[in-house]
TrEMBL record, chains A, B, C, D:
This is Methylthioribulose-1-phosphate dehydratase. It is found in: Cytoplasm. Residues 15-37 are annotated as: Disordered. Binds 1 zinc ion per subunit. It catalyses: 5-(methylsulfanyl)-D-ribulose 1-phosphate = 5-methylsulfanyl-2,3-dioxopentyl phosphate + H2O. GO terms for cellular component: cytoplasm. Pathway: Amino-acid biosynthesis; L-methionine biosynthesis via salvage pathway; L-methionine from S-methyl-5-thio-alpha-D-ribose 1-phosphate: step 2/6. The gene is MDE1. It comes from Lachancea dasiensis.
Length: 264, 264, 264, 264
């Protein structure tokens, strides 16, 4: 919706500010301070804001992690904060090799999603992992049992198939006539305890680029943050469409031309 | 939706301006004039704008009150105004101890929600109270009888349980396997007459952080304005989800794995 | 949704520009040039933008007219233009007394809604008239026969009852226990031919502040543009809620406590 | 939704930058560099951003092409990019006469929609073609068989009938009592292979200004980009309305007054 009513001088809400580091250290906080809008610390902020307005991370839900494409450092938004108000200085930064935090904001604690993000980095060589509490994911986890399945929709073509072009070696996406299958794992009391279920799903579905967590949300990853963002958008579109199809009685993976058999 | 079409120089709508106080008094109106975006007078404006675009406070519905964390003064948006156009100078300010207004805008009258806000401050030691006319709250009040109940959804974990960690004394939130219960009280002809029903619900549900008003909306409070905002977002997400579950025939508090018994 | 991705320097879409009037005449176009955001020519632009993002006036549908509170001149947006891109210089201005246009943009033609707007000005002494193609209005015109009826919802209290306070003479709004009734008239091939049906409805429903046009949209008016805006928002909220209630089987004017008899 | 929370200094996401052309060539890139917001290269960017926030082109889906009204050059957004992040320098430009690209961004490949856009230019003398993955189009392609049909809705009047005013020669739009008919063609594995189906539909439905592609989306064109935008908005509105009518059991092309026979 429009922002026509925002006046110059409108004051935005802000998270509590981090205690000021000394001037020297702040100026030399190159891990998170960058004028490049594509720096992971900046991208996490702008993506979380976008996700918030999509109803994907309201109420402090969800999260995102990006691996710096050059340094390999892993950037993670903190736990339990209002995602639309994140600032670069709120980020945790982890050294990929040692698994140790090399930057820790004083006011916050690390995201409970951290072990799940790390599983995607290590088992899938992800460049970024997105976790949302999308209502479409939750609804699909109630409609479907072990797998979310949707077939014969153009938007499926935005999702990787896990196969490679035999000639050029490039990653191939699903085709229109394919069925997108996303595993659904059961939720656990504590988000970090999801790690086992996620790792099993990663093994059982070697081509999956996402895992739905029942009554919780979805994890989506990709080789770069741009691809993870696109995969997440395409999958959310498909889950939303599946809910609408189900509402009319049409199974989301039904054959082309068989819709009228099911239509209420 | 995008604001790409807003041009520099677009003129926003504005509420009628308060008659100018004398230059001296205006410069010395420190109760509402602050450059700090987290000052209650500023936060009420930015939150009401956000709520407006969420369809929570359109048509002058709803309201919000924030207790200044340092002075203890209670800030309240006026009655019957367009919430997205609020400015700091429109605020009523009440002295907590005496219950007397220490700032009264000339053009407006106090919110009819005031006694309800005050009940939350006194019975729950709230730091802020949010009142919306969310359609999800109204729909849930039609679907449910005396209590809104939803269970086994991750987003429940954003809501306080009312219990405290026995070791550290910290407030504990609900767990994934808990059932969130929010009392529903009946509406009255005049909003101020809701006070009795609200106070009874506060006594009967000592752990509740919200009360739904049938065919009207919801009141949500928290120890700080940030927490009240997060609770309200999480509860609205859960009420929206409950409506979608009900539309498919699934009871929002049904057991995990029992969905297919109900699915239409 | 967020506009976080708008970059400075983004170029907005613009309607074709009016042929430049001579510098003198342009500087002396006080009918539409004003730095006051509440001037009718400016308000029509900002409100149409807001309405566009509410899906009320997409595809050039809908319109709005405001009577200048001081001069009594009637401002009307032109016909068939993209409402979100309106600029003050696109406005038609009519002299109330003579009914003659005193300002006519060269590129555009007057709105087909003009006779309907004028009926509201003359029969109801309106200060502004809003016409939207709201899908909630169209759906309600399919669900209901001669009248849209909804009862016992708090938001009804934002709508005038047509009665006056016997003591203070102030306009009274509906109460929570009242039923809001909005007449539904049948659509005609040409929008200007709606005038007869509208005028009859205005006579038959002397307390109505809106008329729904079947399979078309809604006209809402009020004594000031602020009130017309609030009435339109509150009525749209109620029509949206009525559609949701009907979807679950609940008649929007059913008695309090009778919902479960109807609930699917 | 509001953008009130965007702070000055927020950093937007950006697509990878094109390798810098030499300063000279960049300054002399008049095919895509223009300060005129209505230049095709600028309009494609602002329209794609608008479409993105409408959920029409998320996940890199959809596309748009505009013919420069003076040079006749055809502007096309590249394939597989995030549509909300497009910049003028990302555009492909084709010479209409020769069919040869006269501008080719180094990092991107041409849109797979190109042959479809060209069909609309040659068979319909279009000035612009819009392709979205609108969920309303996909749902209508599941509900309807060979044709999308909707009748007796005011918004239909925004769509051209294909007939001309016998006196003035002006294009006539549909009337309120007409039925809008949009052909639905079957999707193919590769978007470029849709060309045959599209061209057949263009021949079979000489008055159509749009073609729905089953389980894929919609192509809409018009004599100018403004008209194509308006047609697309009006058709999307009508498809959305048709889904809502169908949800209640009402056939979108049912006669006026027959709704109650079908209403669930
Ligand atoms: Zn989570
Ligand atoms: Zn209220
Ligand atoms: Zn109309
Ligand atoms: Zn496509």
């Amino acid at each position: 919706m429009s922002s026509c009513f925002c006046k110059e001088g409108d004051t935005p809400i802000e998270l509590s500010r981090e205690p000021a580091r000394s001037m020297e250290s702040q100026a030399s906080d190159p891990l998170v301070k960058s004028s490049d809008p594509r720096h992971p610390a900046n991208l996490i902020c702008s993506l979380c804001k976008l996700f918030y307005y999509n109803n994907w991370v309201t109420g402090t839900g969800g999260g995102i992690s990006i691996k710096h494409p050059e340094t390999g450092h892993i950037y993670i938004a903190p736990s339990g904060v209002q995602k639309e108000q994140l600032q670069p200085e709120h980020m945790f930064v982890m050294d990929r090799a040692s698994g140790a935090y090399i930057r820790t904001p004083q006011l916050y604690k690390p995201s409970a999603c951290t072990p799940l993000f790390l599983s995607c980095y290590s088992q899938r060589n992800a460049g970024a992992v997105i976790h949302t509490h999308s209502q479409h994911a939750v609804m699909c986890s109630l409609i479907f049992d072990k797998e979310f399945r949707i077939a014969n929709i153009e938007q499926i073509k935005a999702i990787p198939s896990g196969k490679k072009d035999p000639l050029r070696g490039k990653d191939l996406n699903l085709s229109f006539f394919d069925t997108l299958v996303i595993p659904i794992i059961d939720n656990t009391a504590h988000e970090e305890d999801l790690t086992d279920g996620l790792q099993e799903a990663l093994l059982a579905y070697p081509n999956a680029t996402a895992v739905i967590v029942r009554r919780h949300g979805i994890y989506v990853w990709g080789p770069t943050v741009d691809k993870a963002k696109v995969f997440n958008e395409a999958i959310d579109y498909l889950m939303e469409l599946a809910c609408k199809m189900r509402q009319l009685g049409i199974p989301p993976d039904c054959g082309i031309g068989e819709e009228s058999k099911f239509l209420r």
